[in-house]
Amino acid sequence: MRDHGRHKAGIFMGLVFLGLGVILLLGNLHMLPPQFQLSDWWPALLILIGIKTLVVMRRPNAWISAAFWIGTGVLFLACTLGYLNLSLTALILPVVLVWFGVVTLVGCGGGSARLSGNGSES
Question: Is residue 56 one of the residues assigned to a domain?
Answer without folding.
Answer: yes
